Amino acid sequence: MNDTMVKLVTETSLYYDENVTNYVAIHPEDGMFSQAKQVKILSKHDTFEFEVILKSTVTPGVIALNHFQRRKYHLKKYRSYFVSCYSYKTPSLTLFDIINERFNFKNRIGGMESLLEEIFGNVLLPRLYPQSFVAKTVITKTRGILLHGSPGTGKSLIARTVCDILKVNPKIIRGPEIFSFMLGQSEQYIRDLFEEARQDQQNFGSNSALHIIVFDEIDAVCKNRAQSNSLRDNVHDNVTAQLLAEIDGMIYLGNILLIGTTNILESIDPALLRPGRIEKVIKVELPNAAVKQPLSNIHIPFVLTVQSALI
Ligand SMILES: Nc1ncnc2c1ncn2[C@@H]1O[C@H](COP(=O)(O)OP(=O)(O)OP(=O)(O)O)[C@@H](O)[C@H]1O
Ligand SMILES: [Mg+2]
C-alpha cells in the first residue's frame, strides 16, 4: 500500500444496477471512492470486499451493485451502510452533502441528516431523477409518508420543504377543520381533494403534474378506533372510511403524494398504516446538542435582522 494512502470510512447508500457483476460501480467523480481500487461494505453481520469500477451512470455518492450480489451478501435495498476504502484523497462529500449541494437543506432545516436522506431516497429521488434511472434501481415511488413527533420538531417544515423542492403548491388540510362542515359535506370534501389528481391522471396519464396533499394532525381524521370514546360518532367513522377509500384508490394514480403529520402516532387508526396505504412512517425527533448549533445558524440571523430593524 502506498504511504500517502489513508483509510476512509463513510456512510452511503446502495443502489442496484443489473449490469454490474462481481464488483461495485461508483461515479468517476465521486470524491471519496473514485481513487479506491476496492471498498469494504460493512453490514450488521459481516464485511464484504468488492473491486471498484467507475461508471458515469451511477449517481455520485452511492454505490451500485446488482441483485445477485444483494442476495448473496444479504445487503438490504436502499439502506445506508458504512463503507471503507483506502484512497489518496481526503474524505469529501457524504450522501447528505451531495443532496444538500443541490437542495440546500442546511439553510432551511438544521440537523436531521439521516432523516432527510431517508425522505430524499423515498420521496424526492423517484420524482426528481429520470424514470430510466429509477427503473434500474429497486427504489419504489412512495405514495404517502407520515411524519410523527413532538410539537415543534419540524414536521410541517419538512413537509413545506418537500413541496418547495418538488415545486408543487400543496393542498394543506388541518385534520380537525374537516369536521366543521355540514353533515355529509366532510366526506365530499375528502373526495374533492383527490378529484383534481384523478382528472389529471385521466387526461394526461404519466405526464400528469404531481399533486401533494398535506394532512396536518391526520390523527383527527383517522382516529384509532381502539382508543375512541363516546365523542367518536358516525361522522368520524364515515370520514375515516372515505379517506381510506381515497388512499386505496391512489394505487391507480401515480400523481399523488400524501404527507400526514401527527404528534401522537398511537392515536392513529392502524388501518391507515397498512401496507399499500401510508407506506413510510418517519419519526421526527427533538434535536440533540450537536444539532442545536446548525439550528441557531438558521434562526439567529433572522432574529438579529428583526432586532436591528426594530432599534
Ligand atoms: N430542524 C429544524 N431546523 C430549522 N428550523 C426548525 C427545525 N425544526 C423546527 N424548526 C422551526 O421550529 C418551528 C416549528 O416547526 P414546525 O411547525 O415544523 O413543527 P411541527 O413539528 O410541525 O409542530 P406541530 O406538531 O406543533 O405542528 C418552525 O418555525 C420551524 O421553522
Ligand atoms: Mg405542524
TrEMBL record:
Its cofactor is Mg(2+). Its main location: cytoplasm. It comes from the Eukaryota. InterPro entries: AAA+_ATPase, ATPase_AAA_core, ATPase_AAA_CS, P-loop_NTPase, Vesicle-fus_ATPase. It is found in: Cytoplasm. It is an enzyme of class 3 (hydrolase). Belongs to the AAA ATPase family. GO terms for biological process: Golgi to plasma membrane protein transport; intra-Golgi vesicle-mediated transport; SNARE complex disassembly. GO terms for cellular component: Golgi stack. This is Vesicle-fusing ATPase. Required for vesicle-mediated transport. Catalyzes the fusion of transport vesicles within the Golgi cisternae. Is also required for transport from the endoplasmic reticulum to the Golgi stack. Seems to function as a fusion protein required for the delivery of cargo proteins to all compartments of the Golgi stack independent of vesicle origin. One of its GO terms (molecular function) is ATP hydrolysis activity. Residues 141-288 form the AAA+ ATPase domain. Binds 1 Mg(2+) ion per subunit.
